[in-house]
């Protein structure tokens, strides 16, 4: 299992293009999977209570994902210039799903090897456990 240390996370975020930064920050701060992140719609975010509502497509159950100050500020700063309900969207307003090349380039610039987007989930969980959160909650 691979996860990033704080310095590596900062380097990765700094090396991401502007459209990818909030996606990576969301992954690191929440542990959400790529499909869950790219399908977040504006109405899924409750800034007042600092929660993202995620519906599991497999079982239809919803879960509440808390947002820390950094993620809240990041999501509030996203400028909505394209049509559609998705927070992370392309110029057509569809979910921004194909960022593999940009992510690989950011990893290379940051000097991070043997790492996949899914490993950001491990990074989030590992950081929570190191902060004292029990494994079942993380």
Q: How big a fraction of the residues is strand?
A: 5-15%
Number of beta strands: 3
The geometry reads as: globular
Mean pLDDT: 90
- How is the largest sheet built, in terms of strand order? 1-2-3
Residues in helices, as a percent range: 40-55%
Could you explain the architecture of this structure?
The protein has 138 residues and is mainly alpha-helical. It has helices at residues 6-15, 21-30, 34-38, 69-76, 100-110, 119-130, and strands at 45-46, 51-55, 62-66. It has one domain (6-125): hpI Integrase, Chain A, CATH 1.10.443.10. The protein has six helices and three strands. Strands 1-2-3 form a three-stranded antiparallel sheet, with no helix packed on it. A hairpin with a 6-residue loop joins strand 2 (51-55) and strand 3. The longest helix is centred in the C-terminal third of the chain and has 12 residues, at 119-130. The protein is globular and about 35 Å long.
Concise synopsis of the structure shown:
The protein is mostly helical and 138 residues long. 41% of the residues lie in helices and 9% in strands.
Descriptive terms for the model:
mainly alpha; hpI Integrase, Chain A
Layout of helices and strands, plus pairs?
Elements: H1 6-15, H2 21-30, H3 34-38, E1 45-46, E2 51-55, E3 62-66, H4 69-76, H5 100-110, H6 119-130
Antiparallel strand pairs: 1-2, 2-3
Helix pairs in contact: 1-2, 1-5, 2-4, 2-6
